[in-house]
Amino acid sequence: MKVFGLQRGFYQVSRLNIQDLSPVAEERLRLLRLWDALRQKGTSSFEAAELLGVPRSTLYRWKKKLREEGPRGLEPRSRRPKRVRERRWSPELIRAIKELRGMFPSWGKEKIWVLPERLGFETSVSTCGRIISWLIRRGEIRPSVLRGRKGKRGSFRFRRPWAMRWSGGLRPREPGDLVEVDTLTVSLSPGRVVKQFTARDVVSGWNVLEVFSSASSSCGRRFLQGLFSRVPFWPRSPEE
C-alpha cells in the first residue's frame, strides 16, 4: 500500500498558532493553507490562485514573509510612501488664507480660493483646501460650523441677520405695504438657463418680471432698482 502525504511546508503552516493574529493576518494564513492544499491535489499554482481570487504574486509574497518573519509577517503594514512630497506653500499664502478664513469662517475652499487669486497668489482650489485642512489640524482655525435651525421637515435653514422675517400680525392695507419677491429658474434649451425675478404686490396684484443671466446679488440690485422705478405706489428710488 502506498501512502500519500503533503509537503512539509503545508504541515508547518497548519501548526501555526493564530490566536494573537489580526483578522486580516488570519485570513491570509487561511488562504495560504488552501492554496497549498489545492496545489498538492494537482491543481496548478495559477489555477489555485484564480479559485481563491488572489493574485499568484501576492500569495508568493505572503509565503515569503511567512517563511522569513513567521505569522507576524502576514500582518498588514502601512502603505505610506517612504518619500513624501514636501509642502511648497509660501508663508504669505498660508497667512492670507488664514486671515480670509477668519473673516469668513463658514466659507469653503471654492469661495476662499478666489480671493488669493485676486491678490496675486498662484494657487488652486485643491491647494487652498489642503491649507485649510492643515490649519485645522494645527488648531489655528476652527472647522466650518453652519449656524441655523431646522425647518418642519428637518431641512437646514440659515439665519440671515440682514433679513427680517415678516411678522404674522402684519396686515397690508395699501399698495406697497408688502411686496413679495422670488426667483425662478427657466431652462431655455439644454445647457442654457436664465433666472426670472418676480415681484408681486399682495394688495394691488401689480407684478413686475425681469430675466437675468443669474441670481447674483448684482442682478438682484438691478432688479430692485428697476422695481422702484416701474411701480406707481413708490415715488422714490431705494437709493434716495
Describe the protein in words:
The protein has helices spanning 8-14, 23-40, 45-52, 56-69, 91-103, 109-112, 114-118, 125-137, 217-230; strands at 148-150, 156-158, 179-189, 192-201, 207-212. The protein is elongated, with a radius of gyration of 34 Å. It is built from nine helices and five strands. With 240 residues, it is α+β, with helices and mostly antiparallel strands. The strands form two sheets. A three-stranded antiparallel sheet has the order 3-4-5, with helices on one face. It has a two-stranded antiparallel ribbon with strand order 1-2. The protein is 40% helix and 14% strand. The mean pLDDT is 79. It has three domains: 8-74, no CATH class; 91-137; 175-240.
Can I get a quick summary?
The protein is α+β, with helices and mostly antiparallel strands.
